[in-house]
Specification:
The protein has 1 helix and no strands. It is mostly helical and 64 residues long.
């Protein structure tokens, strides 16, 4: 399990915080990958769970 550090920074102080300076390009791209997949799934409807069927069918069998 990974430990994640979450820090709340005001917009005024955001320019002074440089959390991403020590990360490699590979790590930066890895951070954006899940966001990219989510954005494409909204656009192209990828990975969307199927909706409920709207067609109702009733089968009645004749008694012999």
């Amino acid at each position: 399990m990974r430990n994640l550090v979450i820090r709340k920074v005001s917009l005024r102080d955001a320019d002074q915080v440089n959390d991403l300076a020590g990360l490699s390009p590979r790590q930066l791209i890895g951070m954006m990958w899940q966001l990219t997949l989510d954005a494409w799934s909204f656009k192209e409807k990828l990975g969307v769970e199927p909706r409920l069927q709207r067609h109702v069918v009733v089968l009645n069998r004749r008694e012999s």
